[in-house]
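so the lab meeting is tmrw and i was supposed to have these ready like two days ago... anyway. pasting both below. for each one the top line is the aa sequence and the line under it is the structure tokens. i havent really looked at them closely yet so no promises
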Amino acid sequence: MAISAVTRRRLEIQGFTGLDDACLTEAAPWLRFTPAVCAVLMGIGTGLASAPLLFALVPIALLGAVFPVHPFDIAYNYGLRRLTRTRPLPPNGVPRRFACGMAAVWLAGTASAFLGGADVAGYVLGGVLTSVAVLVSTTHFCIPSMVYRLLFRQPVPAAA
């Protein structure tokens, strides 16, 4: 089955450009892996009002911002993909890495809110962040990647 024009565009917005249909078709479901793991961990951290768990996610998100391969992508590339018999995930583009940087800051703010006793703010911040990660992991629509493109005047790839 070929990749849809909508999915291709959403992945290109995240910076996955220059990839052929075969590569994107194979990778698309697995490009949801990292955001899904993040969403689950953020959701647990938020639900438990766990500042330590949320703070523990900050360096993971920062690594995802600094390097073209997120730590959870590495787990997929060297573990799970052996079971799926797929090729390694392509490197993350700058917009997706920017999203990881935004997540790191947001996680630190959420954890700080819980640590400081501002539980309502922590739940709101964590709920919004978790929702954004769920959106990416279910639809490939990445709000922070769109923010990146707007802030840095990067054109959004045209629909096919």
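ok protien two:
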Amino acid sequence: MPLVWPTLRYFRPTEFGDADVCAQLDAELLVTLDALRGMLGVPLVIHTGAITAARAETADSQHPKGRAVDCSAPDLTLLDFWLYAERFPAFRGVGLYPHWPRPGLHLDTRPTTVRARWWRDASGRYAEVTPATLALIHDLAEGRP
């Protein structure tokens, strides 16, 4: 288990799954999630932490490497949550998922200098984040088709 757990203010290993999952999680990811939670001032719900490569949807998934979580901030709009997460350079992979039962983000600490951004539409297709995407996500949050 990463030695960083005792330094975290807001998260405990039980929120990320079993001991095997917790042992795989990247310290940079955990510290940055904790800082994000502190900035937000509202709880974050962790949906998925480290998973096996067999469960990963894509070959380059950061979940099996312990560098990714899928999470939501129920007290914030998805766009507000995304804007806060974007303030943290350690999140070098940021995916928006407006069609999850609880809309949320994928956040990862992949080893790259170029940030990856994407979103997943209602049919499961992945695409780049554009101004039109953000307008669509805003409309979804407002209950407009």
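from a quick look at the 2nd one: The domain at 5-141 is CATH 3.30.1380.10 (Muramoyl-pentapeptide Carboxypeptidase; domain 2). The helical segments are 19-24, 27-40, 78-85, 131-141. will dig more after coffe
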